[in-house]
UniProtKB/TrEMBL annotation:
Keywords: Membrane, Transmembrane, Transmembrane helix
Organism: Haloarcula marismortui (strain ATCC 43049 / DSM 3752 / JCM 8966 / VKM B-1809)
Protein name (database record): Uncharacterized protein
Transmembrane segments: 43-62, 68-89, 116-135, 141-165, 186-209, 229-257
Keyword Transmembrane: yes
Membrane keyword on record: yes
């Protein structure tokens, strides 16, 4: 058994060293255009689809006259196009370190640097040209950003709950196993998070309405008026909606706690 254990340990240790050496070789490997395109052909296929849509949709909008809907479609296509570009850049950095070692790729003279420059320059020009077209559809792009931020606002209360649970450690305790004082503490913490988020969001929305004249409908309007304020209002509106829902549910906790604590006693008395 001792010999077997030593052999297993040496095998695992050698495997770890091989993985480490392989990871170092992969980290410092030179950029190879054929290998990169082959390994990420699926991403480039998706990129081509949305690049084609970004060119086709504006032409279709001018022919059909349905500019509003198609403009939003164009902005969505550009957004997905940028997400795919981010994924490609992430894979390139993961495989060859082209982002972390960008100066060496730009200024060192070797085949990998040459292939990288030959690929990166037209790729960046493609991105810039498409973004240049996108500036003509700024209202639709802002609209998509507002909707995205509005949905992201839903997670604000959950994020607050996670912080409270980590700080207080109360999330590891079953609510039904708490005493009265423990439940009161749990209830106050649970109610305070949506109440705080709701108050801050309400104040921010009210301030924006009074200062800039932007109502809640600005979240769903396609306009370029005060885009920063409109985006902030969208986020606060999403936070406010979820805060109200969480607060309403939190107010039911005392009823649930009382029911679960008293029902066993009532059932025992009825037997």
């Amino acid at each position: 058994m001792a010999i077997t254990g030593d052999i297993e340990y040496e095998s695992e240790n050698s495997q770890f060293e091989d993985d480490k050496e392989g990871g170092d070789d992969k980290e410092h490997s030179s950029f190879e255009i054929v290998e990169f395109l082959t390994e990420n052909r699926d991403l480039f296929a998706v990129l081509g689809v949305f690049a084609a849509l970004s060119v086709y949709i504006p032409r279709l909008a001018s022919e059909s006259g349905q500019s509003t809907v198609l403009n939003i479609g164009f902005a969505s296509s550009v957004a997905i196009f940028m997400v795919v570009i981010y994924a490609i850049c992430k894979e390139a950095d993961k495989q060859y370190g082209v982002v972390s070692d960008l100066p060496s790729y730009m200024f060192e003279v070797d085949s990998g640097s040459f292939e990288f420059i030959m690929f990166a320059v037209p790729f960046v020009i493609l991105i810039v040209s498409l973004l240049g077209i996108g500036t003509n559809y700024l209202a639709s792009i802002i609209f998509i950003v507002k909707i995205t931020v509005f949905i992201c606002g839903f997670s604000t209360v959950v994020f607050g709950f996670n912080i409270i649970e980590k700080v207080s450690g109360i999330g590891d305790i079953n609510m039904m196993e708490m005493g009265i004082l423990g439940f009161i503490k749990y209830f106050l913490l649970t109610v305070s998070v949506p109440a705080f988020v709701g108050l801050i969001s309400s104040y921010g929305i009210g301030y924006n309405i009074q200062r800039y004249g932007l109502g809640l409908s600005t979240v769903f309007n396609i306009t370029t008026n005060n885009p920063g304020v409109a985006i902030a209002t969208s986020f606060m509106l999403g936070s406010l909606i979820v805060a109200v829902l969480f607060f309403a549910v939190s107010m039911l906790l005392p009823l649930i706690y009382s029911y679960e604590r008293t029902m066993p006693f009532i059932k025992s008395q009825l037997r």
